[in-house]
Design goal:
The radius of gyration is 23 Å and the shape is elongated. It contains 2 helices and 10 strands, in the order αββββββββαββ. Helix content is 27%, strand content 38%. With 142 residues, the chain is an alpha+beta fold.
Length: 142
Amino acid sequence: MNKKKIILIIALGVLVCIILPIILILTFTVGTKQGDWHYKLHNNYEIWRVNSKEITIGKREDNILTNTINDSITEFKYNDTFVITKCLNSKEETVYYIINMHDDIIYGPLNEKEYLDKEKDLSININNWINTKPAPKGANYY
């Protein structure tokens, strides 16, 4: 082998030994949670973006979220007592949940008519839906 080939092989070996571990470390520390966030509500309730397909709501206890619903949240609105979520279920149908955050009562899944009727029965008047994609203003990234 000539000198140029030996230097090239050594240079490639050094690059692989140095660059590859750095790429792997960055992938597993930054890349796996990139874009995941949580949004604080009231009474320890939070909305979490777990991954690109799953945005859930639950009650946070000891840094663990106890899931309240299993459908992925696309929009939500809330006040001091209630949070209302618009979700896509496993059949890609839109469903709604109304959660009383003070009493830990969940109404749902509800179709649109059931949701509107229940909202009226509970005298809830919250106007502005908040989208979960992109992350809502005030969300904290992991």
